[in-house]
Amino acid sequence: MKTLVIYKSVTGFTEKYARWIAEVLSADLYAAKDIKLEKMLEYDCIIFGGRLYAVGIDGVALIKRNFEKLKDKRLIIFTTGASPKKEGIIDEIRDKNFTVEQRAHVQLFYFRGGFDYKNLPGFDKFLMSLLKKKILRKQKIGKELSSDEKGMLAIYDRDIDYTKKNAIEHLLLAARKD
Ligand SMILES: Cc1cc2nc3c(=O)[nH]c(=O)nc-3n(C[C@H](O)[C@H](O)[C@H](O)COP(=O)(O)O)c2cc1C
Fold first, then answer.
1. Which atom of ligand 1 is closest in space to residue 127's alpha carbon?
2. Which of 44, 55, 136, 152 lies 20 to 30 angstroms, CA to CA, from 74?
3. What is the pLDDT of residues 42-75, one digit of tens each?
4. Angstrom distance (rounded) from CA 96 to CA 50
5. Which residues contact 100 (CB under 8 A, 6 or more apart)?
6. Are 98 and 78 within one domain?
7. Domain total for the chain?
8. How far apart are CA 44 and CA 3, in angstroms?
9. Closest Cα to atom 28, ligand 1: which residue?
10. CATH number of the domain that 20 lies in?
11. How far is the CA of 120 from the centre of ligand 1 (A)?
């Protein structure tokens, strides 16, 4: 099976997973900005990875806008986030990012990436500061914080890498399946 790995990564965590996957599968690897649909059509299996961005998958529009031409291929999507993997996360991400038809064709995986505040673009830093203020306000009025919100406060302005190569095992199985 001819396999292609595409990634969109801002601070490198998604790219790290994409490189591991491409290396193990001997697949071709492209940054999303460098690939065109014509090239994508040459492959049987397309693996796309993008960071989680307020539960949206950054860059997945590349797959969604070409979905009609890609849907008969094996489509595997992974996303990386700073939060630990928790029960229900895959369903939540799938429902938020894909239509009912797309959900039937796409296999979705979540890997824990990391957080690299200092290398975020200015706009992302701004969004993070708004989010932090919102969480602190909630804390101040005595409301219980969710585990994600607590996690967010703990890592907000830090650099932390949670990537683990063995996290990709299930994705590799899905890519290799006959
Ligand atoms: C504005 C913003 C929103 C984010 N939203 C989420 C989120 O909803 N869930 C999560 O787990 N991580 C979230 N993150 C963290 C990133 O998804 C995480 O750092 C990711 O691994 C970065 O991947 P990259 O290095 O490939 O860009 C967010 C980060 C930013 C800057």
1. 1
2. 55
3. 999 999 999 999 889 999 999 999 999 999 999 9
4. 14
5. none
6. yes
7. 2
8. 6
9. 53
10. 3.40.50.360
11. 10
Please write the tens of the pLDDT for every residue from 121-171: 999 999 999 999 999 999 999 999 888 888 888 888 789 999 999 999 999
Ligand 1 mutation target, pool 78, 79, 80, 133, most atoms within 8 A of CB: 80
User: Would you say 3 and 175 are in contact if contact means Cβ atoms under 8 Å apart?
Assistant: yes
Could you read off the pLDDT of 67-119 as tens digits, one per residue? 999 999 999 999 999 988 888 999 999 999 999 999 999 999 999 999 999 99
Distance between CA atoms of residues 158 and 105, nearest Å: 37
Closest by CA to 131, choosing from 177, 166, 87, 82, is: 82
Mean pLDDT calculated for residue range 19-36:
98
Nearest CA to ligand 1 atom 3: 53
Range of the domain at 126: 118-155
Q: Ligand 1: does its nearest atom lie under 6 Å from the Cβ of 56? A: no
135 shares a domain with 94: no
Distance 100 CA to ligand 1 centre (A): 25
Q: Are residues 50 and 127 in the same domain?
A: no
Ligand 1 atom with the smallest distance to the CA of 131 is: 1
Q: 42 and 109: one domain?
A: yes
Q: Does one domain contain both 29 and 86?
A: yes
What does the pLDDT read at residue 146?
86
